[in-house]
Amino acid sequence: MPGARHKILGHVFSGFCTKMNRTKQLSSADDNMETPLKRCLNTFDITLLGIGHMVGAGIYVLTGTVARDLAGPGIILSFILAGMTSMLAALCYAEFGTRVPKAGSAYIYTYVSVGEFWAFVIGWNIILEHMIGAASVARAWSGYIDSILGGVISNYTIETVGELHEQLLGRYPDFLAFAVCISYTCILAIGVKGSALVNSLLTLVNLAVMTLVIAVGFTYANIDNWTLDQGGFLPYGLSGVVAGAATCFYAFVGFDSIATSGEEARDPAFSIPIATITSMTLVCIGYILVGAALTLMVPYDQISPTAALPEAFTTLNLPWVRYAVTLGALCGMTTTLLGSLFALPRCMYAMAADGLIFSFLGKVNKTTQVPIINLAVSGISSALIALFFDLEKLVEFMSIGTLLAYTIVSASVIILRYRPEVTPLLREDSSLSEVGTPSSGVIEFGVGPAGRLRTGYSWLEPVVGRCEPGAAVSACVFIFSCFCAALCLHLHWTNQQQQLNSWWTVLITVFFIFVLVACIVIIHAHEQNKNGLGFAVPLVPLIPAISILSNIQLMVHLNTLTWLRFMIWMAFGLLVYFLYGIHHSKENDTATSYSVLLGSGEAGKIRWGSIGAAKRRSVAEDTKPIVDEEELPQ
Predict the structure, then answer these.
(1) Is the CB of residue 42 less than 8 Å from the CB of residue 266?
(2) Full DSSP string of 267-323
(3) From 53, 152, 574, 581, which residue has the greatest number of CB atoms within 10 Å?
(4) Max alpha carbon distance in the chain (Å)?
């Protein structure tokens, strides 16, 4: 009996592991373009969607807080570091956008490359990212209006309702932020093209105001604000720059909405890479110049944390610029809020369409071609968070999920680039032919060279020669990610203990770096698969590997309470997955989830990028062999 019980348990857990690691099946490129959503966005629309999502509360609220409390004038370096880290991740997103033109962004990318469980983890965190993103911007929008009006709104609310005394909650319930979330949710409900037009107009106004701020700021610049008399360029040291970068990273997360629009883009293979790189470049340059202008106009310790730019121009006796900045701030925070509320329901839609969360969230309105129920749930949830929670705590909480998503997307780019391509090969089956009988053409499945050792690396044959194609690369990516985390934690802890120069610290650091370099060398030694890529990340595996290391480094600098809240959110998510998602996943069926949704389900889809499928010559469980018969001339 004990032996039978162990066998039963082994079978159950084996089945769970198989389901958790299954990858999403995708059909042909033509079928991938089919969607119940409306493909109406061009490259210009998508570019402004990304810029609008990134240039908002980050530039008008976050810049003042980071400059005063974390980095000083070194905020310029913080923006450069955060921008470079985000650009590395953005390149990985751009490649995936050409591979998988579907809504869901990092979630769908992880699903087709790593597996269902990690896809759910990423999707669950993207939901949190955009929900908190929308709530934090709504809270910043409200705070900005309150600051302009001299605190009338906050004072009246506190007198009427009272204060909230919990640490995580805001000082008072923000009813204006709640109303703002609900209002913009209604705007998005009119349809994607209409909301994209509103976003584009507001974004152009915001860019014009940014240009004005930079021009006037450098006109009134005072280089003495960067000298030692005022604390120097780095008053908080390099650690302040890194801590500032971890917070500034929040300002760049908006490019994720570009990838989320993949199912509504007319030509996603072209538009998504162009929009991603263009928007990231413009926004990064803009943030650096605004940060420089602000800290040159006003000493860092005199910057207002809530309304940095308007107060700076008031100090310079330039009220007309203050009014222009106020207009730009409201437009910028509106587009950021629209971006978050645009991306959130589409991620939930993708997960619901795959069966990992409740199916009613995957329903699309036939008239507007927008997931209306999903949008309503997203808007109300974000509004409730904005009503009660504090802006600073929300921003910290959001960064961890975003960095985790970027890390896994970067890892997925490496895994897919070295995964062998499975191609059908029609061969003449002479063994079935006899004199006077018809000949047969039978479909077999061949494996391309990707994932195999390249010429000149035969010396690695004893180490990885017996691995299946692509398996050694996947293992190295996992080991590289683990040792990146170990290295970052080790350096962070030794820096806090002031033991960076001790011999054992140097020895451990050298060992970790050796393992990381060895993983990169082994990955580089394998053949890549670039077939069908409209855009490919350059210098793979180096750029995705640097992205992984950078993201993990920023994650390590987040505080313990942020990690604790993240664990609580993930515990709730795992309950949803194991009690619902794993049993209702559309990958349990033979048809893909999108084919089912469209009512054009086709059995017989080959698992995209599956190594196991490549090894099987008989695929009776997935497809029936196709046999063409031709009568021989008599």
Answers:
(1) yes
(2) SHHHHHHHHHHHHHHHHHHHHHHHHHHHHHHS-GGG--SSSHHHHHHHHTT-HHHHH
(3) 53
(4) 102
Predicted confidence (pLDDT) per residue in 40-89, tens digit: 888 998 999 889 888 876 787 778 888 888 888 999 999 998 888 888 88
Q: At residue 445, what are phi and psi to the nearest 5 degrees?
A: -120, 120
Measured CA to CA, the distance from residue 134 to residue 152 in angstroms comes to: 24
174: number of Cβ within 10 Å: 27
Rounded distance between C-alpha atoms, residue 4 and residue 87, angstroms = 54
User: What is the per-residue pLDDT for 9?
Assistant: 45
Structural contact between residues 410 and 548, judged by C-beta atoms closer than 8 angstroms: yes
**pLDDT value for 621:** 39
Q: How many CB atoms lie within 10 A of CB 212?
A: 14
Strands 627-630 and 439-447 come out as: antiparallel
CB within 8 A of 488, min separation 6: which ones? 549, 552, 553, 555, 556
Q: In this predicted structure, what is the pLDDT of residue 388? A: 85
- Rounded to 5°, angle at Cα 430 from 425 and 431: 110
Tokens of 468: 């299946």
Strand order of the β-sheet with 422-429 is: 422-429, 439-447, 627-630
| Whole-structure pTM value | 0.75
The predicted pLDDT at position 212 comes to: 92
State whether residue 628 is helix, strand or coil. Answer: strand
Which of 408, 398, 51, 353 is CA-nearest to residue 249? 398
- The residues of the chain scoring below 50 in pLDDT are 8-9, 11-13, 30, 424-426, 430-440, 443-446, 590-634
- Smallest CA-to-CA distance from 295 within 239, 210, 231 is with 231
Q: What is the pLDDT of residue 447?
A: 56
CA angle at 155 for the pair 150 and 161, rounded to the nearest 5°: 155
CA distance 107 to 116: 9
C-beta of residue 169 within 8 angstroms of C-beta of residue 389: yes
Q: What is the pLDDT of residue 150?
A: 79
